[in-house]
Automatic annotation (TrEMBL):
Pathway: Cofactor biosynthesis; iron-sulfur cluster biosynthesis. This is Cysteine desulfurase IscS. It comes from Dehalogenimonas formicexedens. GO terms for cellular component: L-cysteine desulfurase complex. It catalyses: (sulfur carrier)-H + L-cysteine = (sulfur carrier)-SH + L-alanine. Homodimer. Forms a heterotetramer with IscU, interacts with other sulfur acceptors. Master enzyme that delivers sulfur to a number of partners involved in Fe-S cluster assembly, tRNA modification or cofactor biosynthesis. Catalyzes the removal of elemental sulfur atoms from cysteine to produce alanine. Functions as a sulfur delivery protein for Fe-S cluster synthesis onto IscU, an Fe-S scaffold assembly protein, as well as other S acceptor proteins. PANTHER family: CYSTEINE DESULFURASE, CYSTEINE DESULFURYLASE FAMILY MEMBER. The modification N6-(pyridoxal phosphate)lysine is found at K202. SUPFAM superfamilies: PLP-dependent transferases.
Length: 387
């Protein structure tokens, strides 16, 4: 039986077109882009072509794009790099309670090393009030970091409003756009961001390659030192096949984004309506309209998200409990807690995320299987019986 993969927010399969574009760069074009002979120059050209494609996707200039190992490194570099470059002065960082761990843990590290961090709350839909940013900015604030589209609940922030404030106050604005890029239009000028993180494996490219957009003129230090690749900002021999694949994935995203987002949001809306109408005491997490076209996140009172996922897995459906990477942790998601959900809802969450190979049949299968799974688990729950 063909499985229904509904965890595109965790990672996406590499598109066949992307794989095909990458393959020659493992053997036929072996050059190091820093080498001056023909093979090196071929590799350099391929890297610069990909840089141009990514620049076009986000309306940046090619020399504002830095290739690095993925979304995690981009988030680390954005925050640690800004603080490193600005010395002891300006060591206050503002972020939100619903950031990816790559941002939150970097903030933790910076705090341990003497920076101060303000974590802003969000409302029950996961939206940050720009007024909160205005109130939090201090004379020593160096950077504000706000996730563009949340990886768990899909809520899309109003960054254009937030950047009006950061610009007026003269502080840098970083955004983790790992979930947004390739799924919704991302334009660094319209958003007004100074730094923006992207990762290839969330948009049908390979794992282990990503990019950080750095607005020209931004004062930022490296976090890796060595041979001075990427204009001295990110040392290490370029991952040429990865960069080529990233570039191809970005070109595909630009071509298909409009039609895919229409197709996926229709499937998502059918999924949401079906789940809410057939499973009682269920909540849709995230903003009802300002959300990614491919994200649905539910809380089922008094059941554990992990148990729902294991049961779906047996029925051939791959989904994620509310918080990603939670096979190693049983803590409820920090994102759902930030929405103000009580524990019995924060634990009982399920994220279904759609993508290129999702069809109406996958949605039908979920709607067929999920109500029974939730009902069975509730029947076994002492909390449900006693509520
Ligand atoms: C996946 C993800 C990351 C991490 O990216 P990697 O390339 O896996 O390191 C960061 N932020 C968000 C929002 C993500 O979804």
């Amino acid at each position: 039986m063909k499985r229904s993969y509904l965890d595109y927010a965790a990672t996406t399969p590499v598109a066949p077109e992307v794989l095909e574009a990458m393959l020659p760069y493992f053997h036929d074009f072996p050059g190091n882009p820093s080498a001056i002979y023909a093979e090196g120059q071929e590799a350099r050209q391929a890297v610069e072509k990909a840089r141009g494609s990514l620049a076009r996707l986000i309306n940046a200039r090619p020399d504002e794009i830095l290739f690095l190992s993925g979304g995690t490194e981009a988030d680390n570099m954005a925050l640690a790099g800004i603080l490193n470059a600005n010395g002891c002065r300006g060591r206050h960082v503002i972020t939100t309670a619903i950031e990816h761990h790559a941002v939150l843990e970097t903030c933790h590290f910076l705090e341990k090393n003497g920076a101060s961090v303000t974590v802003l709350p969000v409302d029950t839909n996961g939206m940050l009030d720009p007024g909160e940013v205005e109130k939090a900015v201090r004379p020593d604030t160096a950077v504000v970091s706000v996730i563009l589209a949340n990886n768990e609940i899909g809520t899309i922030q109003n960054l254009a409003e937030i950047s009006k404030i950061t610009r007026e106050k003269g502080v840098y604005l970083h955004s983790d756009a790992v979930q947004a890029a390739g799924r919704i239009p991302v334009d660094v000028e319209a958003l007004g961001v100074d730094l923006l993180s992207v990762s290839a494996h969330k948009l049908y490219g390979p794992k282990g390659i990503g990019a950080l957009y750095i607005r020209k003129g931004t004062r930022i230090s490296p976090i890796l030192w060595g041979g001075g690749q990427e204009r001295g900002k990110r040392s290490g021999t370029e991952n040429v096949p990865g960069i080529v694949g990233f570039g191809k994935a970005v070109e595909l995203a630009q071509l298909t984004m409009a039609s895919e987002s229409g197709r996926l949001s229709a499937l998502r809306d059918r999924l949401i309506a079906g789940v809410l109408s057939t499973i009682p005491e269920t909540r849709l997490n995230g903003h009802p309209t300002q959300r990614l076209p491919n994200n649905a996140n539910f809380s089922f009172d008094y059941v554990e998200g992990e148990s729902v996922c294991l049961n779906l897995d047996l029925a051939g459906i791959s989904a994620s409990p509310g918080s990603a990477c939670s096979s190693t942790s049983t803590a409820p998601s920090h994102v759902l807690l930030a929405l103000g959900l009580p524990q019995h809802q924060a634990f009982g969450s399920l994220r279904l995320s759609l993508g290129r190979w999702t069809t109406g049949d996958d949605i039908d299968r979920v709607l067929e299987v999920l109500p029974g799974v939730v009902a069975r688990l509730r029947a076994m729950s002492p909390l449900w019986a006693r509520k």
